[in-house]
Amino acid sequence: MKEQLVLGIDLGGTYTKIGVVTKDGSIIATRKFKTGAKAPFPDFLKNLERELSGLKDTLDSSHELIAIGIGAPNANANSGNMEQAPNFRWGDAVPIVSEVEKILRLPVAIANDANASALGEQQFGMGKGMDNFVVITLGTGLGSGIISHGKLLTGAHGMAGELGHVNVDPSPNARQCNCGLKGCLETYVSVTGMRRTIFELIAEMRDDSPLRSISFEEMTGEIISDCALNGDPIALKAFEKTAETLGVQLADTAAHLDPEAFILLGGLSKAGDILLKPTIASMERNLFNAYTGKIRVLISDTPGDNAVLGPAALGWQRITDG
Amino acid sequence: MKEQLVLGIDLGGTYTKIGVVTKDGSIIATRKFKTGAKAPFPDFLKNLERELSGLKDTLDSSHELIAIGIGAPNANANSGNMEQAPNFRWGDAVPIVSEVEKILRLPVAIANDANASALGEQQFGMGKGMDNFVVITLGTGLGSGIISHGKLLTGAHGMAGELGHVNVDPSPNARQCNCGLKGCLETYVSVTGMRRTIFELIAEMRDDSPLRSISFEEMTGEIISDCALNGDPIALKAFEKTAETLGVQLADTAAHLDPEAFILLGGLSKAGDILLKPTIASMERNLFNAYTGKIRVLISDTPGDNAVLGPAALGWQRITDG
After folding, report:
1. CB distance B166–A257 less than 8 Å?
2. What is the phi/psi pair of residue A174, to 5°?
3. Number of domains comprising chain A
């Protein structure tokens, strides 16, 4: 009997990663190419088709591809489209699912990238055995995916779990968000949010810091995390403030969902305990008493290279759900 | 064949209401007695047993009671206990389900009162045909119940949906909540919250108002709603501020759950459009663009006298789920 495999596609703003994944989460082949978010959508499809064809050639007759899962920004699980993705010039509603079905003639499922990550953690990662948890991805923005009663929570319109855009600062001088709102969580808790915090702190504090010689555009999550791990006072203070805000929000999200755990992923989570400990402390201080001491906050052990696992989990689920 | 019936018990801080309810939500018999939240728990059980026995006597041989549903403050759906209910002196973990099972030897299910209301709206009310909605009860406090993918969302510890205790004001001078936290939604959006707002406005504004001759303790939700309906400027301003805060939170909750609708219940919802219109306006202003124009806000048409319907729906679900 042939070994059944699923194709996971992690469609990112910069790179698209493709992986062939087994039922137990082994990645047996991968490809990576530039997404071309500013180029026309048909160009992307052409590149995708070429890479998919190359990847299929590496499989032998003992393998059988049975489904495709796609994680993409602003993907709508119900419509199969990417909708109004701010960093893409592919149109307002991009029919990813139907176009990928044309290329490979296999069942295709799509989800918001962070929602796919939540499924990946459930099937292959730290969410194994948990029926209620929330994944928070701390990258350029803040994404989230909710597993509730064992299932991905997608909501009435396929767009549940946009925690990056809950309000954490109702004051008039709250930070402006790309989405048009003010005071959104991701303007504070994300790589971009931390850069903003660090620039405020550079203006406010007098401590020496290597961060003073880096421009706003050049300041990556890795640089910030490395500075904090080296004891830089500005980076440490920035993590403290970020963790405080994140903890308050985790408490609010707990009051909605009563999860078993929050699982943090992405660039900022590399800082480990520097992020984790003050986040847990802030969450516990702000939790409604029904939840105190009951909710874990974890950092994912899934390497960023394995970004195709979430989409692959979605593919496997597509088969199970029929 | 006998007609199957369910018993709904609405266990409130002041009164306990019992009703015998048909599959389609007709209430065929009711009882009401003082809960005695400050008296010992065994006293309550004695009263409950007496009333249940009286109610059973009104049924004839064509009826068959098959299950019991209970809605109660701070009820934990998993443990079957009321846990740390602030206005009750019955102990930290009150085993309601097991004690009621002893009295009637029928399957018993319990849920937080607002969670039970959500099931009631789903089975008998405005939530019919909706798989994703959130009920918000605006009484002395603020309760909530979440229906997600057709099911009551109970979470990992049976305590999901405590929206009264999400933070809406992170500033140092936020209002203190009974729960020990500061800035909780229910300190602004509830009858108690509106009283606090009105007392601030009485201090701030110069307008004549009948509210100036009513003490804090005497100011009920009905009085506030009536004043607003009569055009009282202080009551109207209080509703405007309350609706603004509620709308911001509904937007945040939408970013978690992507519901089809919010359904408002309880004392304050009696104000109708005075509450509803500015709530919708505030929610829309604060919604992430993926949701704008898609989420309805409704006022329940279930009369308060029908508080047993939610618990009864829970009883019916208990039978269906086995």
Report:
1. no
2. -65, 155
3. 2
Residues A88 and A197 in one domain: no
Cβ-defined contact of B255 to A289 (cutoff 8 Å): no
Q: Which domain holds residue A38?
A: 3-113+314-321
Tell me if B132 and A255 make a contact (CB, 8 A cut-off).
no
Interface test with A, best of B134, B258, B263 (most A CBs within 10 A): B258
Q: Residue A157: closest CA among chain B residues belongs to which residue?
A: B258
Q: Cβ neighbours of residue A93 under 8 Å, at least 6 residues apart? A: A79, A81, A82, A83, A84
- Do B182 and B312 sit in the same domain of this protein? no
Mean pLDDT of chain B: 94
Neighbours of B13 (CB within 10 A): 18
Q: What is the ipTM of this complex?
A: 0.93
pLDDT of residue A13: 86
Q: Which sign does the torsion angle of CA B239, B240, B243, B244 carry?
A: negative
**CATH assignment at residue B175:** 3.30.420.40
Range in A114-123, A304-313, B212-221, B231-240 with the lowest mean pLDDT = A304-313
Q: Which residues of chain A make contact with B288, given a CB cutoff of 8 A? A: 162, 165, 179, 181
Residue A55 inside a domain? The answer is: yes
Query: Does B99 share its domain with B139?
Result: no
